[in-house]
Amino acid sequence: MSDMSMMRWDLQSVFPGDSNSPEITHFMEETRKQLQFLEEGMKTDSLLHVIQKLQNCGARLHEVGSYLSCLVSADVKDEKAKQLQTRLYELDALYQKLLIQLDAHLLRLDATQLETILKAPEMDEFRFWLNERARRAKDKLPAEMEDLAVQLGIDGYRSWGDLYNILVGRMSITLHKDGKTEQLSMGQAFNRMSSQNRQERETIFQIWEDTWAKEADLLQPTLNHIAGYRLALYRARGWSSPLSEPLLINRMSQETLEAMWDTVERNKPLLLEYLKEKARLLGVDAPSWCDVDAALGQMEQRFSYQEARDLIVEQFSRFNPEMGKFASQCFEKRWIEAEDRPGKRPGGFCTSFPISQETRIFMTFSGSAGNVSTLAHELGHAFHQHVMRGLPYYQTRYAMNVAETASTFAEAIVSDATMQEASDPKQRLILLADKVDRGVVMFMNIHARFLFETRFYEERKRGMLGVQDLNELMTQAQKDAFHNALSSYHPHFWASKLHFYITGTPFYNFPYTFGYLFSTGIYARAKAEGLSFGNKYVTLLRDTGRMNVENLAKQHLGVDLTQSDFWQEAANAVMADVKTFLQESSAFSPSDL
Length: 593
Fold this sequence. Notes:
single chain; 593 residues; mainly alpha; Butyryl-CoA Dehydrogenase, subunit A, domain 3; 3-stranded mixed sheet; two-stranded antiparallel ribbon; 25 helices; 67% helix; OligoPept_F_C
């Protein structure tokens, strides 16, 4: 089979026929019936029976949601899939209504009654999930009001998120070069912005910025209304901070978040030295926004899809044979959508199918070393889902912050192996820069997103923000996060970044830095312990859906995440790469690269 055909995923084993599949329509209708039957039995069925049925319905909704997300990502103009997503929202609203009714039941129990239920042997697989719901229910509105919020969200809150996807689907970038015209999807254009040719990436970046600016008048109310909905709901619940929900979702404390960001801020000075040295090697006085992610030089090696596959499988296998075997299976079964073609959304993701017990990876592969890292990153997500097979569905629902642990860990395995095999000092330096660049993203770019969103919510409490307000807020956040080290910034980043428009997950930023540092600390231990760490790693991953992050770290690593020690240990590993780069880069001039 050719590289090209291997780079297109196969979704037929989940639901044959894509968005026109009669199977998915039937599956969704059966799910609706199950939810309706469960609604009728909520007052008469046993608590155990209700939870078991809820778990089954949750898995079915997840299955459909993953499938439709795959279809829309691979073809942003798939209108049928978008219509099915709207129907799915209605089913999910009914599911949420039943969960709210369960919460109301839990609130009616006194402490002794709840403790007796939680201690019952038949509740073993639901104990963490049920206890978590009982605690969170205390901080929410009465059941009928929470249900109303969910219902109104179908045509309000969630619809604003859908609008972003509609806009991206119609957007494209036109390039004129050497008398030729090229039309790029936003995903293709995003990949081009890492070009080694500075003039090319600056040209594409300016067109990119201008393209988003043209849509800003639609994206500005979209972002404002998403935030306005959340703030109204938070006020009704008595939540003073917009971080209350994301911290609950990520099962972590404010103390842990502050310890992590404090450590990040303390370690930025060395990264600023790196940016200054990178600018020298790029032949500029100071890096612009589009220089930050740019490759330092031209990699002599471009990777075919098969070469990327072989490299990843080999290095995964060295760490853990099961990990390598699973990665090979993902390629063989065509669980990966990697083809570089128009019509795809930007970025990459990995999604699971709990009923089919499968996974799918989405990205756009064009042969760069960065693409290989992205592929390894997403396969790390897939392996995380793989090792949790056999667990009850509610125990597999791990949060985003620990989800980024497995992906970043996998990326580090391949990145280190690629550097070790590079015999040419120039190529090694380029690869090392690529690795350090990821640290810059996690310490600075992600921090800028967090600062923007934090400040945006505070401003939004006082009213709607205009396009210029958002541009200024975004630019200032970037300046603060990068300590004014850049010569230019990305004012319309707030418009271009999908993460700000994902209605299901507010503050889709700090979990990336958490996962990066958490996995870096784990990876340092893995290197110290060798092959024996492989099984410990799998055990840790299997617990990510049934522990908060503080308990997870305490049990498996013996560390306290609310203190700076572990975070600094992880940061030291990142800074070690920076120091190595600064030592080795002094032997090169811009003309050498």
